[in-house]
Design a protein that fits this description.
This protein is mainly beta and 134 residues long. Helices cover 11% and strands 30% of the residues. It has two helices and nine strands. The strands form two sheets. A six-stranded antiparallel β-sheet has the order 3-4-8-7-6-5. Strand 6 and strand 7 form a beta hairpin. The protein is globular and about 40 Å long. It binds zinc ion. The site of zinc ion has 8 residues, from loops.
């Protein structure tokens, strides 16, 4: 079990941009086709924007046409948490960072092989760590 990051809302508000705060802490959703990464094909590791936890490998990113970055699997089941979300009259599964609890997006059962899952994630909740930088 990794150490969880616990911060109060005031601390998060100070550390995150207003857009990040809205998505990561208030469970908001960025408008489609506006995010930094929805169309990105740059290789690297997508980290949690709030705490730097490794979440998704660019190898598992695919073109979903939804306007949000989409992945068919997280790098590890342990790095994300999922929870039933009944908000907005829809039954969806919420995806969160397992380390800091940041809201990332939702997972849907209509993704490509091999998992059949589509992790639909807000760009603003992610930070790409490009591969060639290292
Ligand atoms: Zn996090």
């Amino acid at each position: 079990m990794k150490d969880k990051i616990q911060k109060n809302e005031e601390e998060w508000k100070k550390e995150l941009t207003p857009e990040q705060y809205q998505v990561c802490r208030m469970k908001g959703t960025e408008p489609p086709f506006t995010g930094k990464y929805y169309n990105s094909k740059e290789p690297g590791m997508y980290l949690c924007a709030a705490c730097g936890n490794e979440l998704f490998d660019s190898n598992t990113k695919f073109e979903s046409g939804t306007g949000w970055p989409s992945f068919y699997t997280p790098i590890s089941e342990e790095n994300v948490e999922t929870e039933e979300d009944m908000g907005y009259g829809m039954r969806r599964t919420e995806v969160m960072c397992s380390r800091c609890g940041a809201h990332l997006g939702h997972v849907f059962p209509d993704g490509p092989r091999p998992t059949g899952l589509r992790y639909c994630i807000n760009s603003v909740a992610l930070k790409l760590d490009p591969k060639d930088k290292k």
